[in-house]
Amino acid sequence: MKLRFQPLTTEVDALIRFLTSESWNYHGNPNPSSAEIREAFKQGYYTGEDVKTFWIVADAGRKVGLVRIFDLQDPTPLFDIRITRPYRGMGIGEKAVKWLTRHVFTHYPEAIRIEGHTRKDNYAMRKVFFKCGYVREACHRKAWPSPNGTLHDSVGYAITREDWEENKVSPVDWGEVPF
């Protein structure tokens, strides 16, 4: 499947339809309301100097996902990715993360690394991080609340510009202190 990445501009109604079309269980707010999305859009949550959002568009012009890259004025931008349920498991996440990594390192020379976080039980996203050369750097225990009050562990991954440019994966030196 061929994908293209189209910048989100003013189409807030399409964004609302997309984000309210299903539950996003591995995200902080799995069921945002239309009003919440509209207000976030007005406040610059999706577009601005420090944030860019792109539709993931499949062959037939269907919007199958969304990539939001933020903290772009920081040396360590972060990202959020969502793929609609019918298109999960088709390699779109991997293609999108590779695209956004190339996009950030190509267009933002001050970026030295890119970070992403997911719930520990989101095995599909963790596999995408691994396939894209991202290294697990953190585990935050009981740091990700879900709407039912359950606290999940959060896992942080990152890729450095150097690793991306040299097509390598450098393990984390945890610097463990012997006791």
Helix and strand topology:
Elements: E1 4-7, H1 12-19, H2 34-42, E2 51-57, E3 63-70, E4 78-83, H3 92-107, E5 113-119, H4 123-131, E6 135-145, E7 151-160, H5 161-166
Helix pairs in contact: 1-2
Q: What would you note in describing this structure?
A:
The chain is of the alpha+beta class. 27% of the residues lie in helices and 30% in strands. It has helices spanning 12-19, 34-42, 92-107, 123-131, 161-166; strands at residues 4-7, 51-57, 63-70, 78-83, 113-119, 135-145, 151-160. It has a four-stranded antiparallel sheet with strand order 1-2-3-4, with helices on one face. β3 (63-70) and β4 (78-83) form a beta hairpin. The mean pLDDT is 95.
Short note summarizing the structure:
The chain has 179 residues and is α+β, with helices and mostly antiparallel strands.
